[in-house]
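Subgroup meeting minutes
Present: P.N., E.W., G.H.
Scribe: E.W.

1. P.N. recapped why we're keeping a running log of single-chain structure predictions: easier to compare across weeks, and new members can see raw inputs and outputs side by side.
2. G.H. added today's entry (229 aa).
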Amino acid sequence: MCPNCKQNAPIVYRGTLAYCTACGAPRPPFSAKSVNLAGQPSKIGGSVAKFFGWLILGGGLLLALSLGLFFQLLIPAGSIGYAFGIPIGLVSLVVGLLVLFGGKKLETSGIETERAAKFDAIWGMAVARGGVVTALDVGRSLNMPVDGADQILTEMTKKHPDYVSIEVDDNGKLFYKLAGVAEQEGARFGVKYRVEGDGRVRIADELEGGRAAQEQAEWEEAQRKQYGR
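Output recorded in log:
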């Protein structure tokens, strides 16, 4: 748990130093899961397994073909080439495909673990920032490009549309709002539009209320100027 923000947020390494992804305060190394390292062993293991899978598949089939042709040319009248080539080819095919599928599954598991760690980091960041984050905030906190941060945030809105929404402030800048996180005083954005998970855009409900209050205030001001009261 971070001693500064009191959240069990992941950490991010910048060089050899570790920082809290929620508030940016320094934290001891290995005190929590890291967004830099989350899923990396599985991804590396999956890549290695896929390499050996292709090696077994390609090398085994090549060996089976070579032995089959050699013995068939050596003894054309017999079927000894098929006796050697077919079993070796089948074993290579089965083992190679199993290793490939295992490597793919391991790599996918690593990607999911990495994504989950980044989701946790973004949630902790949103709690520390009053429920509102931007792609620039996420990019700086997680030490990653802004485009990559925007991609992760967009993915969060698609996977969890009831909890994460894309909104646009009065200046036309995108930000992401997480439901269920209390907004800090003074941290509220001027919401103009809300982008739903299915891509539709609608005017936010709070804007309607704010617009009505503004029109009422303008009408009262005009009445005071006209009638001197």
